[in-house]
Write a structure and sequence with these properties.
Layout: H1 3-64
């Protein structure tokens, strides 16, 4: 194989490998952002449910007395 073609092939492989690494990092960042958003959403939902159950519990407790 011609040395210049071999050098070009090596550079092309390095470029492809570099782009795959970038894609992996991008997907990881998106996954982290989605996980962070889901955690924040679940925490907000939990707080809302807690206050709703507390409200219902207080109404039931006051109706029994």
């Amino acid at each position: 194989m011609h040395p210049q073609i071999l050098k070009l092939a090596v550079k092309m492989r390095a470029l492809v490998a570099h782009e795959e690494g970038q894609n992996l990092i991008e997907y990881t960042l998106v996954l982290v952002l989605v996980a962070f958003g889901a955690t924040a959403g679940v925490q907000a939902l939990g707080k809302g449910l807690d206050s709703a159950f507390t409200f219902v519990s207080n109404i039931l407790a006051s109706s029994l007395t």
